[in-house]
Each structure stands twice: as structure tokens, then as C-alpha cells.
Amino acid sequence: MARYVLSDEEKSQIERIADDFIAGHPVWDLHAYADEVRLEAENLPVGLRKFLVGARAEEDAVIRVANLPVSDDLVATPPSWQIAEKEGAALREELVLLLVSSVLGDPFAWANQQNGRLVHDVCPSKGQEASLTSASSEQQLTLHTEDVFHTCRGDYVVLMCLRNLDQVGTTVARVDAVEFPEDVRQVLHQNRFRFYPDDSHVEEAMRDGAGPVALDERVHEVASVLFGPEDDPYLRIDADFTSPLPGDAEAERAMNFAAEQLAGATERVVLNPGEVAFIDNYRVIHGRDTFTPRYDGTDRWLKRTSLIRDLRRTYVHTRRRSRVVG
Questions:
Q1: What is the pLDDT of residues 41-73, one digit of tens each?
Q2: Mapping DSSP to helix (H, G, I), strand (E, B) and coil, where does residue 60 land?
Q3: Nearest 5 degrees, angle CA 245-CA 189-CA 201?
Q4: CA separation for the pair 107, 307 (Å, rounded)
Q5: CA distances, 163 to each of 68, 135, 146 (Å)
Q6: Whole-structure pTM value
Q7: How far, in Å, CA of 79 to CA of 69, rounded?
Q8: Which three-class secondary structure state does DSSP give residue 20?
Q9: ∠ CA 283-322-310, rounded to 5°
Q10: How far apart are CA 235 and CA 148, in angstroms?
């Protein structure tokens, strides 16, 4: 894992950039400002920019940057993302996240996730403890490709820690940490698998109290688990939202083998306040430890965004120039 620790001088430089930007934009609208944020990112410390550009070129599986500015007067962890959105919680931290992220790619959003926001709040919510979403806590989030179901899924999942008193870990597994037997590899490279949207993408349909929408009723893509370079493949899998084509026992065995081997190669990353992790969504699957929420304002709180290395991929898919997919 590549890691860069900002000096205090570099940290102060980023604080000034963020504060000046906010002062010049009194009405906050990240969608409207995204291109300006990208331009402003050219003023980030040279050492940081060189590190990120180099890590992008090397396709490092997990890229970490530490000692980013987080307010000394950070508000209490919101009880839900809805409250965080309503109160505009930690806007400067959102901006810092996007400034640093813009060196690696373009942020984008999903129309059916957190009201289409470019930056999400990840915090535990009452009643969601056992859900298969980022609002959960007592339910372990299984290792997965973010937004596994969609062609325009991000190249990076970006997590910036604002608070993590309990040292809750983010779990990761690298595709290059697993040796696949040749017969299994061949099956995984074939279009014999269905990829479904997770529960966060069908939340609206679940609000009528009918419970989760059955996987077979969800729009899905058919593709391969391994793809790209034969000798150094990319990965696409989510054990909860991936299945073999009906009746394909060989594909089911290969998928189960892959899931088991990846679970056995799990590494744990603990983020501290002011630290961001860029998780390569093609080379790594990720999850999260379980924890017991207190709901007292001190629970784990992250800011999250998704990055795409070529924003035109979304333009082609949606047929419009928008950072919102769906």
C-alpha cells in the first residue's frame, strides 16, 4: 500500500486553499463547482501531487494520504446521512476530499444514492444496524466491488476519516494476492455471472415496508468476474450480489472458490482522522468490520466519494454531460 504523510506545512497549505475556496463560494453546490475544484487542485503541494500521479500510474491497490486537515471543532457524528446533508456537516472536509481526489480522477454520483450527492456521509444509523449498506454497524460488510452491477462503477472508492475512536477497520483483499488454478481462471474470465445492484441502489423500492427487492427482480449485467489483462487481471465480485447464470454449476464453484480465497487474503486498514484511502475498485474488493454504535455523537464517521478515471464513460452511458448516473 502506498502512503504519503503530509507535513504540517503542507497541511496548512491545503487548509488555506480550502478556506479561500469556501469564502469565494458562499452558496454551496459541489456539482456546480466540481470543475473549479479540479483546477484548484493544481495548487496542492507538489509532493502530494507527484505521489498521487505516480501511484495512479503504478495502479497501486490502496493509496493512502495522512495528516489532511480536519476541524478541531468538528461537529458530532450525525445520526444519519440525511441529517448530515440537512445540516451541511463538515463541508470543508468534503472540499478537502474532493481537492485531493481530483488529482486521481473525476468524482461522480448516483441518482438513487444519498440524493445524488457527490460526497456521501458514512455513519451508523439507528434501525440500519443489520443492513447491507454503509449505514450498518453490527452487520459485517462482505468484501465487494463497489457498485458491482454497473459498467460505470468507479475506478476508485475514496474514504476520508473524520472520526474513528473505536479503530473500526476497513477490510481489503487484492486480486493479485490470490493464485487461481488455470481451469478456475478460465471460467472466471467468461461471461457466466450476473451482477446485481446492492440494497443502497434499491432503497426507494424498500421504503414501502415490503422488504428487500429479490435479486431476480433487479436490473443486472451479465459479465465475467475476472477481466482485462490475462496475466494481471482486474476483478469484479460481490458475494451478496453476484450469482452464476442459472444452472451453471461450474461457474458457481469457480465463484465460490474465488470468494473463499479472497476472504482468506483479507487485510485490515484502520483509518484515523485526517487520513484518506483511495481503493482501486478494479484491483481490490473491500468491506468493513462490525462494531457497536453508541449514537452519542462519537461514532465512526467517514466522507466517501467515487472517482472515475475518464468521466466521458458516464457521458456515453447516460447520453448527457452529467456527473450523476441513473
A1: 999 999 999 999 999 999 999 999 999 999 999
A2: coil
A3: 55
A4: 4
A5: 13, 15, 22
A6: 0.94
A7: 23
A8: helix
A9: 35
A10: 10
